[in-house]
Amino acid sequence: MATLFLIADIFGRTRALESMGQQLSETVPDIRIIDPYQGMDHRFETEALAYAYFMDRVGLASYGSSLADALASPGPDTVLIGFSVGASALWSVSDRPFRRHIRKAFCFYGSQIRQYTGIRPRFDMELIFPEREPHFNVDELIGILTAKDRVSCSKATGLHGFMNELSPHFDPESYAVFMEYLKTALNRLN
Questions:
Q1: 3.40.640.10, 1.10.4100.10, 3.40.50.1820, 3.40.366.10: which CATH number matches 3-189?
Q2: How much is the pLDDT for 73?
Q3: What global pTM score does this model have?
Q4: Average pLDDT value for residue range 68-78
């Protein structure tokens, strides 16, 4: 049976992310959450406040290092699901040799992946991008990334944040579709 790591976005460990973990625990009972704030729920009032706090107190490089540390110790087969900056942090360390056996990673709207297109992941990664992003062309980035081994990309109909009920772009329909998709994928991996 695999271990599932949920890698949080700028909101960190929240009730919403814990609820997602509970829903996925029907498929994979061993679920762990990695977040940039060591488990503290800051209950940010807005996405802008969460972003400012993350950038001021943590940053992508530090989050990537924390994630790499969490994945370095030997362990069972592992599946990873990252969201936004969590997905970008995961991508940024995906070329490192981990002792843990990583079966697959799912990365939702990791917009900073565009800063690290030279990375060649050592494990299978499925990148799910939003329909569009304000700062770059999603289709161009997908074209670059799909040329890499072990990488598959798709676009959702939602916008950045569609899987997080705290995001202004939360999309309940897309959330439901992708939760079923993840449950099916996790069943196949087990």
A1: 3.40.50.1820
A2: 82
A3: 0.96
A4: 85
